[in-house]
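Q&A log
Question type: sequence-to-structure
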Amino acid sequence: MMEALRRYAFRKFKASEQKIHELNYLFWECTTRCNLNCIHCGSDCSRDSSHKDMPVADFLAAVDTIGSRPPGLMVVFTGGEPLLRPDIELCGRELRKRGVKWSIVTNGHLYDARRHVSLLNAGMGALTISLDGLEASHNWMRNDSRSFQKAISAIELAASSSRLNFDVVTCVHQKNISELPRLMTLLVMKQVKAWRLFTIIPIGRAVRHPELSLTGSQFVELMEFIKQQRTSGPIDLKFSCEGYVGSYEPHVRDSRFFCRAGINIGSVLIDGSISACPNIDRSFAQGNIYTDNFYEVWQSRFQPFRSREWTQKGQCADCPAYKDCEGNGFHNWHGDKNNVLVCHLSKINQGAVR
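Response status: OK
Response body:
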């Protein structure tokens, strides 16, 4: 009875958030160039991107359309690899002048001591570094024999700064799931305080690598690992916001599943398109900063994100968990959009039958 009441209350909370739709996170896909060639990349980035980097002034003009900025607004530099741009600090300082916080998501390959100090001096308040397993597993997925050591060096630098809000993210797949306990030990030894785990859906290059998708039993193993470590583990561990996980909801993250794409999370993509999380299908773009006022688009459009009834089709059509899931994470709707790509609840149900 209590669990049913909690689910009902959370549905009401989500409805309120959808109505208010306060912009809290703004992703800027500042480049689609990358210095790695990762086999799971959802953006399919490369060293020689067909898109030129967006000028800082163009992005700042979009930010300036946000009149009364929410006090907690955070701009997140993503890519590609943001640190390939030499003007990140310039943009960061301009954002801080506007009272906007900012952070970076990086593979760590270019994050050395000089850049660490430079970014901190420009006002960087948060940082996310990817580490996808122990050395062999990480280097396999990142397609680079130096990537693991580069990422570890970046983690050590980030952990040395007490004022930096910093975490490590790991994409879990068939080849690294058995390494999670040892990887956690390594992160604790490196003074990492927060760790987020993701799974991989078949978009971008990941389509060509079915071994990146967890089986049902492996997904249950992942949920059990997170549940156990959140109870007694030495690190702030959580599952990402990527999908609804049924009875594991109260146990694997700080809050129940809520895809905030287009509700609290927006993005400016490399070509100026206005959307939500950068991994969402580009056909969901709601406008473009070169032809539209960014904040007017945020306030008046985004209907597909804020009303999810259109996702109640395919395997979601008759699902009894739909009111809590609402079609799973938005990045799961690619291609013809007639069915969700990955249903986390189905994986759990499959894994429970062993």
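Response note: The first helix runs from residue 2 to 20.
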